[in-house]
Amino acid sequence: MPKHNGTVTIPVLHLGTLQSDPLTLSVKPASAIQSGSNDSKQPVLLEIEAEPDAPYVQGEVRYTVRLLSRVPLREASLTEPLAGDALVEKLGDDNEYTVQRNGASYQVVERRYAIFPQHSGALTIESPLLAASIPVSGRRGGMFDNSPFAGFPGFGSMFTETKPLRLRGRAINLDVQPQPADVQGNWLPAHALTLTENWSPEPPVFRVGEPVTRTVSIIAEGLSAAQLPAIATDVPDNFKAYPDQPQTSTETQGNYLIGTRTQKIALVPTTAGEMVLPEITVSWWDTDARQERVATLPARHINVLVAKPGATTTAQAPGSSVPLQKAQAEETRVAATSDTPAVNAESDQSGSSLAYWPWIAGVLFLAWLATLLLWLRDRGKPSREALQAAQADTPTTTKHRLAESRTGLQKACMASDVKAAAKALRDWAAARWPESPPKGLPELAQRLGSEAARREVIALDRLLYSDGNKALAWDGKTAWSVLKDGLSHAGRGDLAQTTESLPELYPRFS
């Protein structure tokens, strides 16, 4: 299986006094099989599309891979595209359908990605690599050709002779545009961006001392939630503000990522009168119109009512348009027009307060009893220092170790450094299975999620003990394209999970 294009020579094979002739092969690039006028003769095609071809830095590139096959594919796996300094996100699930090409029917598996370039200038996206086995036309296992089972559908295909196939589509070259110099606000290159708000209660009623919850969301089409800025929560001095932790989510809608950032804030007015909640703005860059836009929630003019009779009022804050005396007069007027005299109301409130004391005492007793029981339960627990030592390897630390070793493996593969790649693999395995790390690369290979990745690890282990020339000839870049997928689908136990990256394209048939 050639690792590069050009002229490759198969050396002489010796058997006792016999020897073969050397064999010279002319190897074409992987993408050449899909060029020219011979596409109709190919049983498997790999089509690549990307748009736009001149995206903005940190803007979304919609990347589509279509695998077309008119023969059954066995043990098929498809790696992810390699995009250098860019973030790659898979969009949704694969789509499967059938198309007609040049009079032939092809089964199609379509896979979509969102790619975000992280720097301006030229960017090359290498196509995913397909590894599979396809049947050899007109050839089957000879001993079963004349068997009584040869005529049964599906049985003969079990013994059909196959050959390996490795196929890569065309590379995509992008001209990534920098951020325009005249952009004043946030750099958010998106297809669309909106601001929304909701209130609880709806519609909102503002009254001194009573909270009202405002929920503001940024929804961006063509950005992930991690790219969205914090939402401004400025309020007038007449309010107390209690913001909640922001909530973020990233979903797929069609060919775009939809990033959402939501901020809830409880607003408590401290004085009555006419108030203005300031507008909220988020500037963004329209990648379709290629111009800066601003999403706005307009300023809201509200009327804050006085506190309900009997509630504690707050002194007037500077700038209030209603004097405190007027608010108190309004409270007096409401009390005077009530059906129940004010004196009786005060007497009822005093009686009610006295009636609550036995209940309050009972609640305090139960709280004390619960505290005593918790103290007795925790006496046998380990100290805080012991807990901190036991929790030193937190999930965040483990995730960091996995990411660090994975990055080290990628760098080693790109540099075709066999020893560094083997060390990075062992470090990754120790972080992935801290309870039962594999004892060597062969055991690690059995835990990976694809047959192609297992073969690469076994080959890497053999290179560690081979001569230096073989190690120097190792194609680390191709190995990384295979290992990347295998690490992502590694098993949890000591045995590999036998999963396929692609579903079966065809039912079994003879």
Short description:
This protein is of the alpha+beta class. It contains 9 helices and 23 strands.
Structural commentary:
The protein has 510 residues and is an alpha+beta fold. It has helices at residues 324-336, 342-378, 384-390, 395-414, 418-432, 441-445, 451-463, 468-472, 476-488, and strands at residues 6-10, 14-15, 18-19, 23-27, 44-51, 61-69, 74-78, 86-101, 104-117, 121-125, 129-140, 160-168, 172-176, 189-190, 192-200, 212-221, 239-243, 247-253, 256-269, 273-277, 280-286, 291-297, 300-304. β2 and β3 form a beta hairpin. α4 (395-414) runs antiparallel to α5 (418-432) and α4 (395-414) runs antiparallel to α9 (476-488). The protein is elongated, with a radius of gyration of 34 Å. The two termini are 28 Å apart.
